[in-house]
């Protein structure tokens, strides 16, 4: 049996086929809400050491699967690895999040990036994947990922997050040609990077367009979907059997523009009514999402009710993957996370007594 055969619930769902239960995995399932993550992170000394040490990154990837009955693993890494390799130099201020030592301040800086950086700069990523694959059971697919070109550009230009990505948004009007040049350069690196991840053993790839929602409607297709499609098309041509997931955060009001996106699955944020998304997309993609992450602060009764609501809204769909609408907050109780995962399995299982 090869890793790419649709033998597990996750890949059955991605193929639009029914399975014994609905698959569930959670964005940021490896992270700060887990005591074992906090422990390994403090022993590593820094987030960057954790990220760039394959032995540790592989351990962190597997941590949530040891604790919970998750249906997929996601590589422990970050979307900011490519900008780091391009010479922007990622750093991480405790409590403040990621930042770059050499951001792109103006279009002239594009020429100063290491546009053709050596592969070796990202070797820690395939090395991590190879380690994970050695330990992860074959029926648990491994998701590899990257940020979308637009989302990476948001962090790379000017003060990034510190100015709520206003600098990247300004380039839409002040330097659209340079922005396009950057997005196409990123698309090429991202596609190569995802192909390296596939060669090292990931079974599914995901593109996080976490900041696509910042774009005005008049620019969304050109600056988000266009360059993302270049990446997705290259993956599809390279290995048609590797499914791709596009996390379309903030796309709720323009879902019809995603109908032709060359991805197998669309990840939705919590603002989108699932039933409405189904009606709008009419089967163009398998859907993934979209429980409000804050529901994990609520009662177990409410978590189960929310699970039932989502499963009911999607009951006509043969493929559907349960997830949150965004990442797990770092301060939720891990018992609630386990309860969510078990509820999805119990309520969607064909044999279940609880069926919603
Ligand atoms: O220990 C710590 O304090 C580090 C926190 C942390 C973690 C656990 C960061 C810094 N990155 C990660 C891991 C990570 N990042 C994963 C691992 C796999 C998983 O379990 O899901 C993934 C898939 C990401 C992807 C990522 N990084 C995204 C896209 C998803 C999203 O959240 O929309 C983004 C935007 C980032 C940037 C980033 N890296 C880290 C932080 C805190 C952030 C967000 C910064 C911001 O708020 O803008």
- CATH 2nd-level architecture: Alpha-Beta Barrel
Mean pLDDT: 95
Number of helices: 13
- What is the oligomer described by this structure? single chain
Percent of residues in β-strands: 5-15%
DSSP E strands, number:
9
Cα-atom radius of gyration: 19 Å
Report what the structure shows:
The radius of gyration is 19 Å and the shape is globular. The chain has one domain (3-350): TIM Barrel. Mean pLDDT is 95; it is low at 1-6. With 356 residues, the chain is of the alpha/beta class. It has 13 helices and nine strands. Residues 27-32, 41, 47, 74, 76, 78-80, 97-98, 145, 161, 208, 210, 327 line the site of coproporphyrinogen I (1CP).
Write the layout of secondary structure elements.
Elements: H1 9-14, H2 35-44, H3 47-52, H4 54-67, E1 73-74, H5 81-88, E2 90-93, E3 97-100, H6 124-135, E4 142-147, H7 149-156, H8 166-174, H9 176-200, E5 204-208, H10 217-238, E6 244-247, E7 265-267, H11 274-281, E8 286-291, H12 300-313, E9 320-324, H13 334-348
Parallel strand pairs: 1-4, 4-5, 5-6, 6-7, 7-8, 8-9
Antiparallel strand pairs: 2-3
Helix pairs in contact: 4-6, 6-9, 7-8, 7-9, 9-10, 12-13
This protein binds coproporphyrinogen I.
């Amino acid at each position: 049996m090869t890793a790419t055969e649709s033998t597990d619930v996750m890949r059955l769902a991605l193929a639009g086929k029914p399975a014994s239960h609905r698959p569930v995995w959670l964005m940021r399932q490896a992270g700060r809400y887990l005591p074992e993550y906090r422990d390994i992170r403090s022993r590593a000394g820094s987030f960057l050491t954790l990220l760039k040490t394959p032995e540790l990154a592989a351990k962190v990837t597997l941590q949530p699967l040891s604790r919970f009955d998750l249906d997929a693993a996601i590589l422990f890494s970050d979307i900011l690895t490519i900008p780091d390799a391009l010479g922007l130099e990622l750093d991480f201020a405790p409590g403040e999040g990621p930042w770059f030592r050499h951001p792109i301040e103006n279009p002239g800086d594009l020429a100063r990036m290491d546009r053709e950086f050596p592969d070796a700069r990202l070797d820690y990523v395939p090395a991590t994947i190879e380690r994970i694959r050695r330990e992860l059971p074959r029926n648990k697919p491994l998701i590899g990922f990257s940020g979308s070109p637009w989302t990476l550009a948001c962090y790379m230009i000017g003060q990034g997050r510190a100015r709520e990505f206003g600098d990247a948004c300004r380039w839409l009007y002040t330097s659209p040609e340079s922005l396009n040049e950057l997005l196409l350069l990123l698309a090429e690196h991202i596609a190569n990077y995802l192909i390296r991840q596939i060669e090292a053993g990931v079974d599914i790839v995901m593109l996080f367009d976490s900041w696509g929602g910042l774009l005005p409607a008049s620019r969304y297709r050109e600056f988000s979907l266009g360059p993302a499609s270049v990446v997705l098309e290259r993956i599809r041509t390279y290995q048609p059997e590797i499914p791709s997931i596009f996390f379309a955060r903030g796309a709720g009001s323009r879902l019809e523009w995603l109908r032709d996106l060359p991805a197998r699955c669309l990840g939705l944020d919590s603002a989108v009514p699932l039933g409405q998304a189904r009606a709008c997309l009419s089967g163009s993609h398998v859907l993934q999402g979209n429980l409000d992450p804050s529901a994990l602060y609520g009662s177990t009764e409410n978590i189960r009710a929310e699970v039932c609501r989502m499963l009911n809204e999607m009951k006509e769909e043969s493929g559907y993957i349960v997830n949150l609408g965004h990442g797990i907050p770092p301060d939720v109780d891990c018992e609630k996370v386990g309860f969510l995962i078990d509820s999805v399995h119990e309520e969607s299982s064909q044999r279940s007594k609880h069926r919603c």
